[in-house]
Amino acid sequence: MQQSIKLILLPLFGLLILSCGKHVTFDQAPTIEKNSNASVPLAAILKFATDRPISVTAKFEAHDHTFAISFDDVSDARKGLPIIGMKPNRKYEVYLKIQVKDRSFDYEGKLTYITPELPSDPHEMLRFTVKRNKGIPMEPGITLLNPRLRAKGHDGSKFGMLAAVDSLGDIVWYYRCDARISDFNFLPNKHISYMTADHRLVEIDLLGNVIKSWFASDRPDGPLKDAIPVKSLTFHHDATLLPNGNYLILGSDCKEIDNYYTSETNSNAPRKRQKVMGDVLLEFTPEGEIVWKWNAFDHLDPMRIGYETFSKYWYSRGYPGVLDWSHANTILHDSTDNTIVMNSRYLSSLTKINKDGSLKWIFGEPTGLSENLRSKSLQLKNGDWFWHQHSASFTPNGTILIFNNNLIRAWPFKEKDDSGFSYAMEFEINEAEMSAELIWSSETADLPGVRSSAMGDVDFLNETNNVLVSYGSLDANDDYGRKNSWSMVREFTNTSPTDLVWELQLWPLENSEDSIGWVLFSSERIANFY
User: Fold this and answer.
1) Which helix or strand (DSSP H or E) is residue 467 part of?
2) Which tens digits make up the pLDDT trace of 164-197?
3) Of 206, 347, 405, 469, which has the fewest CB atoms closer than 10 Å, so is most exposed?
4) Is the full-model pTM beyond 0.90?
5) Which residues sit opposite 402 in a β-bridge?
6) Distances, alpha carbon 221 to alpha carbons 217, 224, 499, 527, in Å
7) In whole angstroms, how far apart are CA 25 and each of 9, 13, 102, 191, 519?
């Protein structure tokens, strides 16, 4: 006769007795405690200790939300196991299932945890609304994003946030820091790295603890305690963890150039000596040693400027009086040939770079390219050119996705054309023919057009083949009832014509003043935090 397995808790001895006579001893009974790091207030910590390794599954049940987390081969969890994924202002009943080898048992102790409410200050928190087409499969998982505050009288450079929302638009995790966040990455070790406006790269765990950080050694803010210096003038926009464990990051070089432009609208305006910022690509080790460097001044033409060179981008980042020439915002590592692709907003182009520093190709509207660079230019076989684009990314098929902000649509000294809307584009590159073909876009007549003045992101979603599009900083649009900048994330099918699967809109809290807005640098869909 097969014996049933039963778990009996004897609190006096901390003993779990199995009917077969074996037992597991709790040297410390399970508890769930508030995360000690205030930067991640929705997280909690599960603590316990046993006399042998066990696997434990914690099931969390609130009135409208249920989820489970599993941890394998744990015996000493006195320091705590991270509990991530709870929603705010909920009371969760927590049920533990213990497994030892091939046997599992229910822990009979009662555990509860109450999560805090979200901040009520509209300058500290936003709300999300969702539209869903339930007739089309949605990529499963959680959407991780980095909202930015836009409000009169508030210094947005001192506000940093990462947030995770589920398919319903409910926040299940968020992190606050003291500097605006640009690029972020969910790392293979389940940590998160992010870039800040004050030239830092930071790696945190899901409880908000800083694991490691680096800073540009020559940044205007000076040295940073407990961080690793990397020889660079700036860190900006984007950083990528390479397969070898090194980081590839965007830095800068500032040069004084004689006879430089003083206007982007008047070609006859007097010229003068100007300080000009150009992009530098850096690969550095976890210890901060630079092992590869590429300088745009050495390979591209700084006299070929784009609109917004005089936008004062660098003024607010510690470099007053410095013009912005190339303004890269994305770097990609192409593992198929060990090259780097740099996306340049003001040059309205992507540049593919060999590790010896030479250029493999340039992809963008070619007006004004010098003769030696024109030979590297890819021919566009169909469709329109992109302008002031953001956040290029590869798909598993080797194609390239781009968020086309579609701004200005002209080179300096020509009339601007701001009549277009912003959307995502997918291109197939044929390097043998030096050509590119537009094979998909998110443009659809079924949706109101929107115009993104900055930022934006596009990612391919592997399970459904859908495409996730973040819209950066959207202008006020009467169709959506906003009086200030706002943003959204849309998930599209990768079909022609495309269909909208899911839409997440970012709004101020109810009854907020009209001067408050929320915009978005980028987003990423992750399967789960574990």
Assistant:
1) strand 467-470
2) 999 999 999 999 999 999 999 999 999 999 999 9
3) 206
4) yes
5) 425
6) 9, 8, 46, 37
7) 10, 8, 17, 32, 51
Question: Which string of DSSP letters, residue by residue, matches 349-389?
Answer: EEEEE-TTS-EEEEEE--TT--HHHHTTBPEE-SSPPP-S-
Determine the Cα angle at 375 with ends 373 and 376, to 5°: 70
Distance CA 212, CA 304 (A): 39
Question: Does 12 score more than 70 pLDDT?
Answer: no
292 pLDDT higher than 50: yes
How far, CA to CA in Å, does 98 sit from each of 48, 58, 92, 246, 402? Answer: 12, 9, 19, 39, 47
pLDDT digits (tens, 9 = 90+) for 132-150: 999 999 999 999 999 999 9
CB 458 within 8 A of CB 401: yes
Residue where the block lists tokens 């574990």: 530
| Averaged pLDDT, 414-428 | 95
* Pair of tokens at residue 432: 């043998």
Q: What is the pLDDT of residues 468-502, one digit of tens each?
A: 999 999 988 767 767 788 999 999 999 999 999 99
**In the predicted model, what is the mean pLDDT of residues 420-435?**
97
Report whether pLDDT(119) > 80.
yes
Half-sphere exposure for 397 (CA within 13 Å, toward CB): 15
pLDDT at 176: 98
Strands 181-186 and 171-177: unpaired
Distances (CA, A) of 94 to 30, 91, 111, 274, 409: 11, 10, 5, 63, 56
Cα 408 to the chain's mean position, in Å? Answer: 26
What residue has token string 């339930």?
134
Kindly report the length of the chain.
Answer: 530
Q: What is the mean pLDDT of residues 234-246?
A: 97
- Which has the closest alpha carbon to 332: 232, 243, 212? 243
Contact 195, 181 (CB under 8 A): yes
Question: Is 511 buried (19+), middle (13-18) or exposed (0-12) by CB count in 10 A?
Answer: exposed
Phi/psi of residue 44, nearest 5 degrees:
-135, 175
